[in-house]
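EI: anyone free to look at a 435-residue chain?
SC: sure, send it
EI:
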Amino acid sequence: MKSNVTPMPIPGTPEAMDTGTLKGFLRFLWLELKPRGKVLTPFNIITGIIILGGIIIIGIRLVKGLGAVTNLSQEYPWGIWIGFDVVTGVAFAGGAYILTFAVHILKVKKYEPIVRATVLNGFLAYVFYSGALLLDLGRPWNVVNPIIGNAFGYGSVLFLVAWHFLLYTLCLFVEVSPAIAEWLKWVKARRIIQKMTTATVILGVTLSTLHQAGLGGLFLTAPSKIHPLWYSSNIPVLFFISSMFAGFSLIIIESMFTHKIFSDRLDEEHRASHNKILLGLAKGSASVMAAYLFLKVIDLTHGHQLGLLLTPMGLWYLVEVAGFTLLPLVLYVVAIRRQSVRLVQVTAFLTAFGVVLNRMNISVIAFKWYEAVRYYPSWMEIWVTLAVISMELWVFQWVINRMPILGAHPDFKTEEENHNNLNGAEVVRWKVSAS
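SC: here you go
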C-alpha cells in the first residue's frame, strides 16, 4: 500500500533550496545546472561532437562571412538554413497552437497530458530556428530594425513574419511558464500566469495562423522562379494546413521517444491516455491531409498543370504528393480502423518526411529549377543544421529532467490544494459574518 505522505527533501539538494531569496535562487540554479545521470552516453558523445563542430563553423561564418562556409550566391540567396531550419522547422512547431487551442479554449481535456511537452517543443523550435535565421543574414545585427522602427517596411511580408515570429515566441514562453514556476516553487507567480492563459492562447493561435500562412506568402512574390507545379496562389493556405499535420506528426514521434527515454517521469494519467491520444492525433492528421490534397488537386486542374506531371519534375512532384501525403493518409485511416498505435507511429515518420520534402521543394529544389548551375548545400551548412537540432535536443532533455513537463509537480500540487482550502475557509467565514 502506497503512503500519501510526501518524503522530506534531502538537505543540500535542489528540492530543499528556498528559491524565494536571491541567494537561494542562485544556489538552486547552480545545483540544477549539474548533469544528472550518465554523461558519456552515445547520444551525448555524438551530438556533443556535432555541436562543437557547429560552433567552430559558426565562428568562421561570423568572422569571414557567408561565402566562407556556404554555397549561397546572388542567384541563390536562400539555402538550407532558411529552407529547412526556418521554413520547415516552424511548420513542425505547429502542434503547439493546435493543442493549446483544443485544450484551453475548446476544453478537450483528452490531450492535456501532452500540452506542456508540445508547447516546450514549439518554444524551443522558435528560439533555435530564429538563431539559424540570424546566421543566414549577411548583417545579423540589422535583425532589430523591424523591431525598433529603424526600417519598418510596412508593405513587406518579411516585416509581418518578423513581428509574428517575435510575438508568438513570447506567447509560447508565457504558455510554458507555469512549468517554470512550479520548478522554482513560485506559487503566486504560477497563479498569476494561469489567469493569463486564455488570453495568451487566443493571441498565440491568431499569431501562429498568420505566421504559418505568412511564410507561404513570401513565395507569392516569386511566380517566375518556382516551378509551376509548386507555385500557387494558395501557398499561404497550403502552408497553414500542412503546419497542422506536420505538428501532429512531430507530437506522435516525440511522444514515442519520451515514453521510452523519460518513462520514470510520466504520471499515471499520461501513461493511461497515451494510445488514445495518438489515435486521436492520427484522426486529426488524416482529416487535415484530406483537405490539403483536395487543394492540391484544385491547383493542378485549375492551373492546367496536368501535362507537367510527365516531366522529370512532375515525377518528383508525384513522389512528394502520392508517396508522402496520399500514402500516409491511407495508412492513418487503416491504423485508426485497426486501432494500431504502431502503424500510427510509422506513418508519422512518413508524414514528417513529406512535409520536409514539400518545404524544401518550394524553397530550394524547385526554386530556379531551370538554372544550369544549381545550389547544393555545403557540408558545413548541413553540419550547422545538425548542430542546431542537437542543441535543441540537449535543452529539451535538460528541461524534461528538471521541470514538471510530463507530470504535475507533487509539492506544488499540495501547496495549491492548501491555497484553495484557505480560500474556501475565507469564503465560509465571510458568509458567516455576513449572516
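EI: The longest helix spans residues 187-217.
SC: 👍
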